TrEMBL record, chain A:
Highest classification ranks of the organism: Eukaryota, Fungi, Dikarya, Ascomycota, Pezizomycotina
Keywords per UniProt: ATP-binding, Ligase, Mitochondrion, Nucleotide-binding, Protein biosynthesis
Catalyses which reaction(s): L-glutamyl-tRNA(Gln) + L-glutamine + ATP + H2O = L-glutaminyl-tRNA(Gln) + L-glutamate + ADP + phosphate + H(+)
Purpose of the protein: Allows the formation of correctly charged Gln-tRNA(Gln) through the transamidation of misacylated Glu-tRNA(Gln) in the mitochondria. The reaction takes place in the presence of glutamine and ATP through an activated gamma-phospho-Glu-tRNA(Gln).
Keyword Nucleotide-binding: yes
Active site: 66 (charge relay system), 144 (charge relay system), 168 (acyl-ester intermediate)
The protein's Enzyme Commission number: 6.3.5.7
Presence of the UniProt keyword ATP-binding in the record: yes
Provenance organism: Trichoderma parareesei (Filamentous fungus)
Gene Ontology molecular function: any one: glutaminyl-tRNA synthase (glutamine-hydrolyzing) activity
Residues covered by the Amidase domain: 64-496
InterPro entries: Amidase (IPR000120), Amidase_CS (IPR020556), Amidase_dom (IPR023631), AS_sf (IPR036928), GatA (IPR004412)
Annotated protein name in UniProt: Glutamyl-tRNA(Gln) amidotransferase subunit A, mitochondrial
Source organism, top-level taxon: Eukaryota
Automatic annotation (TrEMBL), chain B:
EC number: 6.3.5.-
Record lineage: Eukaryota, Fungi, Dikarya, Ascomycota, Pezizomycotina
Function: Allows the formation of correctly charged Gln-tRNA(Gln) through the transamidation of misacylated Glu-tRNA(Gln) in the mitochondria. The reaction takes place in the presence of glutamine and ATP through an activated gamma-phospho-Glu-tRNA(Gln).
Family that this chain belongs to: Belongs to the GatB/GatE family. GatB subfamily.
HAMAP family: GatB
Name the UniProt record assigns to this protein: Glutamyl-tRNA(Gln) amidotransferase subunit B, mitochondrial
Pfam families recorded: GatB_N, GatB_Yqey
Length: 508, 642
């Protein structure tokens, strides 16, 4: 942690800890007005059900929860005007699981409305600010789980829950210099997570180090727990089959092959981030790992596919916010010659959410469906196939696939007559640039802002586990660089072990 | 009275303030507790919504001001209008007489084509995607899961039990069950649709390519001949919506008990060409779904409703392309199906003959009206933006399940009907009534009575072998349909009995099967007369028999004491006396005057002692006597008189 950060924290923060056990009532407003605006001010609510039974192995820790995950005792607003002070009548499975493991919830964290954004600026509570920035600068904390990342970065929480749809946990982790982990799709329950794009949404974990995350997910058996309330939660038998296919132990680095996806070396990549990427690869190589370039040719289309599929699902998921059963409702009736609910939805949603609803509504319309939604789904398949082709491990969800050499680009280097080299992990930066100033973001077009997700969406589209770890190469630079590691489906345990190794090698 | 156009009425009444939107709808909307969902289904219902305050106001206005209107009308000197209305009513009556319904099945020079979509509520205990219970009349909002009200963060959980009635229905419709099918979201905003979308099976339904055959005895249009086969394009699973309960003013209450209740939608090929056949199709589907226990609540309770697609083309059209079709939504009675199709066909033909074109649009039908009304055109069409539901895995149906359900499928009505006709000797009409009455319980009652009657006949020491099945089965069928039916004709007075109620298993509390079979046994064995049997039945149904049938006969001495054969012959002789002229009519063997014969038999009965003559024996005796009278002795031998 930088000296500036520690100093500022001392000035502006009393420990949140001192307050979080307060009885029912208004929580101190200070939270939303705090320097970084990472917590959401809210009325503490009476819990409706008893807390879960503590497990014998429970260890107390402070947990911050992104505001799109339902929680007992707190409203769940998704940083949206349309959910007002929505008090969810139930608690998310992941929150209950963590509370049984000793979590006490320190607060709900600020975010981009419904998870739609890359800088945690599209919030009814105002933007989250990056604690690593100089005092006089407002810099992006990344999004959409920006509040969760900041809560961990400034020490208000030991672990934070975020959601990652196209990079929403990894990106803020990279910007705030912490660890952000997106598990394999279907591993952690989404029951109680307000959906943005169901087929991409995953619950992610943020912490300052890899260890608390690894320990929670694997030592306490979180990865083995099927949730019958979530139809996309992997069933027990499938989990066991997947676990059998992946070795639990990370071998010595000399046994590992790590791929550098050449398509990720984009022109927009900040030179010093490219430097940090190269430096990380070099350090791993010096430790005995084999570093090879790999090609993921469909990467170029990933961003487009993502920004068609995610808004399409979002437009559908957000159709339920009509003010009839919960949330806010306009004073005007719906019957006076107007489109049903247009007033409620017009007033309740923010600009970015409206933009994505419109995008999604268009790409699902009968005239655009074939050219957009269907094509994007095809690309999604291709991206998944790209990954399956480069990983040594087979994807445990499919029958092993044979890849025809003729399908690969002609400049793919062949390892031997078996084909090109296959890898254990992929190594890339998490974001193409350092965190931008909030004032700069305002000047950018939406499409430019979407560009920021280019390195994180492919793993999301393929449902693969990925983690961002902070790497400090240029000591003079204000911000660390987020380095992303991607693994084959369900290879999460080895992924986190390698992430831990990389972080230790690079931060010392 | 025929209906005036509202425009005309409104300029007359209320100084033109009467709504043009139609007061019938308005009343419906504003009446308490009437579920209006069939009328408020989106997207066309948008119009209702917008029109609703006006319509309700209009309804209120008409209710409160009719009296004033009638009072002031004569004063205002508007007698011509009343006269006009009378004239028109007369005219309409005349026209109505001229064209009976039977004639309306065809329109000269035109061919009608109809396709039908039927929505039916499945008989399941759980909703389609939540474990909440399905219910019919429970307290509003008492069976609602988080997902049912689209609570943020809740997810659908497919209830696999709902597949059983769905597959049964598809099998009854001779469909191919798809090993893999998927769920899609169909988007539109409506207050009874909490998610903003309905989960259905648009792209890949679970059943395809079925068919059912409608027979002449089902009541199809005569033009369709002996039978017609209608193809079923697909059957899909989908969610029902919440129930809207209209309150006074512009207030609507929502009951989410019904939201998410599983439905099947049955879509036919456009292969029906006569209105009556379409109606018969809907009735047969209802019967089939009921028989296989897929759907137990019918149209009357809103458990089943139909949309019809109607188009016409000239019969001499060589291109053979179907005309532009219109869709009539939410027909909630069998009669409405037929009436709406006739009205829509005639409207389209009129339009085309006048040189117009048919617009592809959605239309509505109000029970009792003569015209369909436009609800929305193509431009008002909602783009449903069908999208595969990303939370729901594909539905995989194993062939073992399909096999099992196929073998355990209930006997289909046609098979049962054949047996009732061919084996038990019932007429097709009676057999059909038996199957359809009381949701299938009446025929179960028939089997129960028949079984008891059979065992009583078997126990009979006097007869060596059981009489022919048909002889007593038709007797039982006749009594169970017609005599039981007569019991309920008295609505008031000492003879009034409540409606007969049958359990699903065919038990009847008012007329227990034991009593009826005992009665029929004695009747069949000629131990009692039909008249006595009828009186006994009435007594049973009124609960006046304390000691059972046998005791009632014994204690009142109701046994049939038949006169000996000689007395019959004497009676025949006596009856024929002085009827020489009539007897001459029997001279020509080929022209047997049955009416005259019955007259003579009646005379025999009057001459003889009451309650001691069997009409059948009297008839036979009379016949033999006439044959003898005409010297046709050999023929007389044919009559076996013991």
């Amino acid at each position: 942690m930088t000296a500036a950060l520690v100093r500022r924290r001392a000035l502006t923060h009393t420990r949140w800890n001192a307050n979080h056990n307060r009885s029912i009532g208004q929580l101190p407003l200070r939270r939303s007005q705090s320097t970084f605006n990472h917590f959401v001010a809210s009325t503490k609510l009476q819990p409706v059900s008893p807390p879960p039974q503590l497990r014998p192995d429970a260890k107390p820790f402070r947990l911050a929860v992104k505001d799109n995950i339902t929680t007992e005792g707190f409203p769940t607003q998704c940083a949206s005007g349309i959910l007002g002070q929505h008090a969810s009548p139930f608690e998310a499975t992941i929150v209950r699981q963590l509370r049984a493991r000793g979590a006490s919830i320190v607060g709900k964290t600020n975010m981009d409305e419904f998870g739609m954004g890359s800088h945690s600026t599209h919030s009814v509570h105002g933007p989250v600010r990056n604690p690593l920035a100089a005092t006089d600068e407002d810099v992006s904390a990344g999004g959409s789980s920006g509040g969760s990342a900041v809560a961990v970065a400034v020490g208000d929480a030991d672990v934070a829950l975020g959601t990652d749809t196209g990079g929403s946990v990894r990106l803020p982790a990279a910007y705030t210099g912490i660890v952000g982990y997106k598990p394999s799709y279907g591993m952690l329950s989404r029951f109680g997570v307000v959906p943005y794009a169901n087929s991409l949404d995953t619950v992610g974990l943020l912490a300052r180090d890899v260890e608390p995350i690894r320990s929670l997910v694997f030592d306490t058996g979180l990865y083995e727990e099927h949730d019958p309330n979530d139809p996309t939660s992997l069933r027990l038998a499938t989990r066991q089959r997947c676990s059998k296919a992946c070795s639990p132990n990370l071998p010595d680095l000399s046994q590992l092959t790590i791929g550098i996806p050449v398509e990720y070396n984009i022109a927009e990549l900040d030179p010093s981030i490219r430097e940090a990427w190269v430096a990380t690869a070099s350090v791993l190589e010096s430790q005995g790992a084999r570093i090879v370039p790999v090609s993921l040719p469909s990467t170029k289309e990933a961003l487009c596919a993502y920004y068609i599929l995610a808004p399409a699902e979002a437009s559908s998921n957000l159709a339920k916010y009509d003010g009839v059963r919960y949330g806010i409702r306009g004073s005007e009736g719906d019957a006076v010659g107007e489109t049903l609910y247009s007033e409620t939805r017009g007033a309740g949603f923010g600009a970015e959410v409206k933009r994505r609803i419109l995008l999604g509504t268009y790409s699902l319309s009968s005239e655009a469906m074939d050219n957009y939604f269907i094509q994007a789904q095809r690309i999604r398949r291709l991206i998944q196939r790209d990954f399956d082709r480069v990983f040594k491990l087979d994807n445990p969800l499919y029958e092993p696939r044979q890849f025809d050499l003729s399908e690969m680009s002609s400049d793919t280097a062949l390892e031997d007559k078996q084909g090109p080299v296959q890898v254990d992990f992929l190594l890339s930066p998490t974001a193409p640039t350092y965190p931008p100033k909030l004032s700069e973001i305002q000047k950018r077009s939406s499409v430019d802002v979407y560009m920021n997700d280019v390195l994180t969406v492919p793993a999301s589209l393929a449902g693969l586990p990925a983690v961002s770890v902070p790497v400090k190469v240029d000591r003079s630079h204000q911000f660390p660089v987020g380095i992303q590691l991607i693994a084959q489906y369900w290879d999460d345990r080895r992924l986190l072990a390698l992430a831990d190794k990389v972080m230790k090698l690079m931060m010392d | 009275m025929s209906r005036r156009s509202l425009g005309e009425l409104s300029s007359y009444l209320l100084e033109g303030r009467l709504s043009q939107r139609g007061c019938i709808n308005g009343r419906r909307l504003s009446s308490r507790t009437v579920p209006i969902w069939p009328f408020l289904r989106p997207p066309y219902a948008l119009r209702h919504l917008h029109a609703q305050p006006e319509a309700a106001a209009a309804a209120a206005a008409t209710n409160t001001t009719t009296t004033t209107a009638t009072l002031t009308a004569p004063q205002a000197g508007h007698v011509p209008l009343r006269k006009q209305l009378k004239e028109q009513a007369k005219q309409a009556k005349k026209q109505g007489k001229k064209k009976a319904k039977g004639d309306s099945q065809t329109a000269d020079g035109w061919e009608l084509t109809v396709g039908i979509e039927i929505h039916a509520q499945l008989n399941t205990s759980r909703k389609l995607f939540s474990p909440a219970a399905t219910s019919f009349n429970d307290d509003p909002n008492s069976h609602v899961a988080l997902f049912d009200v689209a609570m943020p963060g809740s997810q659908p959980l497919f209830q696999k039990e709902t597949l059983i009635p769905a597959i049964r229905a598809a099998l009854a419709l001779n469909c191919e069950i798809q090993p893999v099918s998927r769920f899609d979201r169909k988007h539109y905003f409506w207050w009874d649709q909490p998610s903003g979308y309905q989960i259905t099976q648009f792209y890949e339904p679970f059943a395809k390519k079925g068919h059912i055959t409608l027979l002449a005895r089902d009541g199809i249009a005569a033009e369709d001949g002996e039978s017609v086969t209608v193809g079923i394009k697909q059957v899909q699973l989908e969610q029902d919506t919440a129930k809207t309960l209209a309150q006074a003013g512009s207030v609507h209450w929502l009951d989410f008990n019904r939201v998410g209740v599983p439905l099947i939608e049955i879509i036919t090929e456009p292969e029906i060409h006569h209105p009556r056949t379409a109606a018969v199709f809907v009735r047969k589907i209802q019967l089939l779904l009921n028989t296989v226990d897929s759907c137990v609540s019918g149209m009357e309770t809103g458990g089943l409703r139909a949309d019809v697609n109607v188009s016409v083309r000239r019969t001499d059209d060589p291109s053979k392309k179907l005309g532009t079709r219109t869709e009539i939504k939410n027909l909630s009675t069998i009669k409405a199906v037929e009436d709406a199709i006739i009205a829509e066909r005639d409207r389209q033909i009129q339009q085309l003959e006048a040189g117009g074109v048919i617009a592809g649009e959605t239309r509505g039908w109000t029970v009792g009206s003569k015209e369909t009304r436009r609800l929305r055109g193509k431009e008002g069409e909602v783009d449903y933006r069908y999208m595969p539901d990303p939370d729901l895995a594909p539905l995989v149906i194993g062939s073992d399940l399909v096999q099992h359900l196929q073998t355990s499928l209930a006997v289909l009505p046609d098979t049962e009907l054949d047996k009732l006709v061919d084996y038990y000797g019932l007429t097709a009409k009676d057999a059909l009534s038996l199957i359809t009455l009381d949701n299938g319980a009446r025929v179960q009652y028939f089997y129960r009575v028949l079984a008891l009657l059979e065992s009583k006949l078997q126990a009979e020491p006097d007869i060596s072998e059981l009489p022919e099945v048909k002889s007593y089965a038709t007797l039982a069928g006749n009594w169970i349909l017609h005599e039981l039916g007569r019991l309920t004709t008295y609505k008031a007075g000492p003879l009034a009995s409540g409606d007969l109620s049958f359990t699903q298993l065919g038990e009847c509390a008012q007329v227990p099967e034991e009593d009826l079979s005992q009665l029929l046994y004695h009747l069949h064995r000629k131990h009692i007369t039909g008249k006595v049997a009828k009186e006994l039945l009435m007594a049973v149904s009124l609960g006046e028999l304390e000691g059972g049938i046998l005791e009632a006969i014994e204690s009142n001495d109701l046994w049939f004491k038949e006169i000996p054969q000689q007395e019959y012959e004497a009676l025949a002789e006596a009856a024929a006396e002085g009827e020489d002229k009539m007897l001459e009519e029997f001279a020509d063997e080929d022209k047997y005057p049955r009416g005259k014969l019955m007259y003579l038999v009646g005379k025999m009965m009057r001459l003889g002692p009451t309650e001691r003559i069997d009409p059948a024996t009297a008839e036979k005796t009379m016949k033999v006597w006439i044959e003898r009278y005409h010297g046709r002795g050999e023929a007389a031998q044919l009559f076996d008189l013991k």
